[in-house]
Amino acid sequence: MDISDVTNTGGDEDETKRKLKDAGAIGIYNYCVYTDLDVDAEYFVEAIKNQNHTEGECWINTLTDHYKDTLMSEKKWESKRMTREKIFKLMNITEEEFKEHGASVEDMIPVFEEFKLTVRLFNCVGKKGYSYEPERKNKKYISIIWID
């Protein structure tokens, strides 16, 4: 049995520096959880796995889920489109470094700023650890709310 002290609700300055790579081990109580299932899968874990996600890339996966039809759409002008390459360039890291170490909230700030994304990051007990509100909001793109 694993017993953990959950009295520390986090949210200090170091939360924005912590490298985030995989959200697979994070859970939270939800009233309703909706997950598409692959009914042809042999095992449950395969049935619930998002085939469009790349393991260990929670930042990219979230951005793709959120903006695949808008900011990351192939229909968007290339100069204005958010791509993996632009994300890495803005963070000043290589794809290999990203895959190995992940990225912190502080690493992602240039991405939020460049694309004028409204962002809220909460820890698993609901305390806000980070928020970004662009001076000029881009109302075409919905806010991102992460629970870490």
Descriptive overview:
By secondary structure, the protein is of the alpha+beta class. It has a domain at 54-147. It is built from five helices and three strands, in the order H-H-H-H-H-E-E-E. It has a three-stranded mixed β-sheet with strand order 2-1-3, with helices on one face. Helix 3 packs across helix 5. The model is unreliable at 1-9 and 25-33 (pLDDT under 50).
Strand content range: 5-15%
Compute the CA-based radius of gyration: 17 Å
Q: Going across the biggest sheet, name each strand in turn.
A: 2-1-3
Average pLDDT for all residues? 76
Number of strands: 3
Structure at a glance:
The chain is α+β, with helices and mostly antiparallel strands and 148 residues long. The protein has 5 helices and 3 strands. The chain has helices at 44-48, 58-67, 84-91, 95-101, 105-114; strands spanning 119-122, 128-132, 144-147.
SSE diagram, text form:
Blueprint: H1 44-48, H2 58-67, H3 84-91, H4 95-101, H5 105-114, E1 119-122, E2 128-132, E3 144-147
Parallel strand pairs: 1-3
Antiparallel strand pairs: 1-2
Keywords:
disordered N terminus, three-stranded mixed β-sheet, 9% strand, 148 residues
